[in-house]
Design a protein that fits this description.
CATH architecture of the largest domain: Sandwich
Bound molecules: zinc ion
Strand order of the largest sheet: 8-7-10-5-12
CATH superfamily of the largest domain: ZPR1, A/B domain
CATH topology of the largest domain: Jelly Rolls
Radius of gyration: 18 Å
Order of helices and strands: EEEEEEEEEHHEEE
Number of domains: 2
Structural class: alpha+beta
Largest sheet: 5 strands, antiparallel
């Protein structure tokens, strides 16, 4: 590759979601591409097991603490990339679904479609644990039905990712549907 690597820095470290022993450093490198563009390369590598991911994201991606909101209204939006750090909270209020902060490896790094599949699988497992006459069944079936529509791009919803420390990000397919609200801007001396 003729691109130039400028610098590398560790921007965030957390316990490995796979082995729960090793530490993963997110290493950010900036590359200058021959056409003048700049890209960030993020590497997630565990020193203990072989868990690793690489991602190439635009340099303009916001990684500050804040509340990220993405409106999902069609199939294209399902391909928006999501990275949830262990301190990030992920919610779909329309479906009353959420992932609380914590080391849930399957919600770390995916796209909107991946998040819907994971919710669908979690809700299905929960449904099987209910009795046949459980009054909650109707509500659960509604949620599953809406998740199915969402996976086809036929259900409008909001994805909210709240990260008080920073490190989480959303790369929207359509920037006009994405909003970022900064958190914790007061400085303490
Ligand atoms: Zn590991």
């Amino acid at each position: 590759m003729s691109s130039e690597k400028r610098n590398s820095e560790i921007i965030y470290s957390f316990k490995c979601p796979s082995c729960e022993i090793g530490t993963i450093d997110i290493i950010k490198s900036i590359y200058d591409l021959p056409d003048g563009d700049k890209m960030l390369i993020l590497k997630f590598e565990c020193g203990n097991c072989n868990f690793h991911k690489n991602d190439i994201i635009p340099l303009t991606t916001n990684m500050d603490p804040g509340i990220m909101t993405l409106k999902v209204t069609n199939e294209e939006d399902l391909r928006s990339k999501i990275y949830r750090s262990p301190l990030g909270k992920l919610e779909i209020p329309e479906l009353e679904l959420k992932v609380e902060p914590g080391p849930r490896a399957d919600f770390y790094y995916t796209n909107v479609e991946g998040i819907l599949y994971r919710f669908e699988s979690a809700v299905s497992i929960y449904r099987r644990s209910l009795e046949n006459n459980d009054p909650e069944l109707d509500e659960i079936d509604d949620i599953l039905n809406n998740l199915k529509k969402a996976l086809e791009g036929n259900y409008k919803f909001t994805l909210i990712l709240t990260d008080p420390q920073g490190g989480s990000y959303i790369i929207p397919q359509n920037k006009s549907k994405y909003k970022f609200e900064k958190l914790g801007t007061e400085k303490s001396e």
